[in-house]
Amino acid sequence: MCGIVGYIGNNAVADVLLNGLKNLEYRGYDSSGIALNDNHTIEVYKASGKLGNLYQLYAKHQPQMANAHQGIGHIRWATHGKATIENAHPHISNDGKLVLVHNGIIENYKELRNKLENQGFVFHSETDTETAVHLIDREYKLCHNLETAVIRAIKQLKGAFAFCIMHADETDKIIAVRKNAPLIIGIGKDENFIASDIPALIGKTNQILHLNDEEIAIVHKSHVEVKDTKGNTLNKTIEKIEFSPEVISKAGYKHFMLKEINEQPAILRKILQKHLPKAEDRVALADSKLNIDLSQVRNITFVACGTSLHAAYIAKATWEKWLNIPVEVVAASEFIYRYNLTDEHSLVIGISQSGETADTITAIKQAKEHNAQLIILTNREDSSITHYSANVIPLEAGIEVSVAATKSFMAQLAALYWTGMYLSEQKDNQNKFLPLKRELYEIPALMEEILSDLSDIKRMGEKLSKFKQIFYIARGIMLPIAMEGALKIKEISYINANAYASGELKHGPIALLDKDTAVIPVLAQGAVYEKTLSNCEEAKARQANIFALSNNDKDKEAALFDEAIIIPEVAEDLSPLLMCLPLQLLAYFAADELGREIDQPRNLAKSVTVE
User: Fold this and answer.
1) For the residues 227-249, what does the mean pLDDT come to?
2) pLDDT over threshold 80, residue 153
């Protein structure tokens, strides 16, 4: 979850590091720091809170390290130890010569810490990371070679880690190493970079090397060597990235989240043109990889976390009808610790925006060990999860900077729709879903219609900001959308919001309803529309404030609702694609009215790379 940058070259190192960290802020963090190496002297600057605090701290000492030619930087999302300066990275050895930054969790740190303390090493933080510093330092004092010391030390570590390491006595290199945590190398001319994600490199280089697990990069100014943990040199392919600086620009919007909400019609239109060139065609794979033997599949399981889990629930509602195969949705964090019944007759589908979600990766690993067929849906085709299956469905949403997922969620829904249709048409060898495909083609324009006038949604969002508690209620395929709406407003406004199957309201939650509670029914005309209206009556009878989202024009003036936002009507199965927009916008406007840090909400990280 933390963000890592490293640089060796001729430019102002601190500027490169601070700019790189700025581009990684979206990952979520609570402290930051940089370490600079100048003429065999390492200086560390650390600050808690926002990155601006680190900028101010370094500005006071800038002349001191003006000639530094290499450095490493870090933004931390606290796991072991509070968000303090002492626990912030980089961490440094007792003699002040070895310094490192870390993403991941070292699982055996307590055992190693006890041993190192008994050997005289002094710890100054509560973190697991400081164990790695002293362990590598101990090995360095035995062999006096940084590369060798790192290889020896990482063999003693259990868990997940991406490290950037420098030593004051070896001023011509930075060591980068990864195991179950992302790390990439940026290749420049007489300069090279290290980062945990591509945005840190945008505008600096468009050539990268991806490190795989248990690979070590020895990064010099003029070249990069990559080796395995046995010291064997590896031949790595340099890849070109196509991202331009505009993708990490707000493009005039107040927040990245609002920009990314507005990008959704164009993303969906692009996806449709790629996989469904004409509504009358059968769904095409385009350049996606999918080799599944459905004749052998007796059950389907989706594993995912957070927003991706809600997308999976929507897929369950459609896939079971389309494929006539039982579908289960399991939170990846639960899947990995339960009795595993998957086998060669199981199809397991992992969904992860970043492709680095630790729980989802572990779930996919376990399913693979049980011989299940696998499909991966991710927004990052270069991510760790793609190594476990050749069946990869790219979401193609582009880099999402705001921590709260919006356009990636919509892209997940789109991918799940066309993948489910594709599998169904392959199973029956028929061109199916013609009415649904025709409606799909209309949805980008309907999205643009919603986005063209946000006044009603803005007003409702501002009203919602006054409540301390909000209930979202829905039935059927709209329930996962209600869950996603509740998650969004919870994430960025910090209002306590929960989603319930509306029929379950009277089985407990109704006790909490009163005049100070807002209830948001998510209504789509279809099999359960009337039933959900009845549940709204129950809430109204308890004096709750009812703010409806509906695709029925009559609900605009219905006496049952205090207010209603009407969206265009489409087939019930497709309604989540449209309904997600007002729900995202309600959360956005409520949070904006409260003055929240919308793109970087407290305690949250974009990419959860630890369990």
Assistant:
1) 83
2) yes
Considering the chain, what percentage of its residues have pLDDT values greater than 70? Answer: 97
DSSP code of residue 224 = E
Q: Would the CA dihedral through 213, 218, 220, 225 be positive or negative?
A: negative
DSSP annotation of 122: -
For residue 597, give the amino acid letter: E
* C-alpha span between 597 and 49 (Å, rounded): 13
- Grouping H, G, I as helix, E, B as strand and the rest as coil, residue 407 is helix
H/E stretch holding 101: strand 98-106
Check 316, 407, 488, 606 and give the catalytic one.
606
CB-side exposure of 325: number of CA atoms within 13 Å? 22
Q: What is the pLDDT of residue 81?
A: 75
Q: How many CB atoms lie within 10 A of CB 63?
A: 7
In angstroms, the CA 308 to CA 344 distance is: 25
Residue type, 31: S
Token look-up 């079971």 returns 320
Ordered DSSP codes for 5-39: EEEESSS-HHHHHHHHHHTTGGG--SEEEEEEEET
Please give the C-alpha separations between residue 239 and each of 100, 205, 382, 390, in angstroms, as whole numbers: 26, 11, 10, 19
| 458-492 residues labelled b (16+ CB within 10 A) or e (exposed) | bebbebbbebebbbbbbbbbbbbbbbbbbbbbbbb
Phi, psi angle pair for 129, to nearest 5° = -65, -40
The answer to whether 114 and 80 are in contact (CB under 8 A) is no
**Is 606 among the catalytic positions?**
yes
- pLDDT number for residue 99: 97
Q: Coil, helix or strand for 195?
A: strand
Per-residue pLDDT averaged across 507-511, rounded?
91
> Which one of 2, 305, 536, 580 is the catalytic residue?
2
Backbone angles phi, psi at 10, to 5 degrees: -105, -10
Report the DSSP pairing between strands 327-331 and 299-304: parallel
Does residue 118 surpass a pLDDT of 60?
yes
Which of 248-262, 463-477, 577-591 has the weakest average pLDDT?
Answer: 248-262
pLDDT of residue 1: 58
Residue 10 has pLDDT above 70, yes or no: yes
Phi, psi angle pair for 29, to nearest 5°: -165, 165
Per-residue pLDDT, averaged over 53-78, amounts to 84
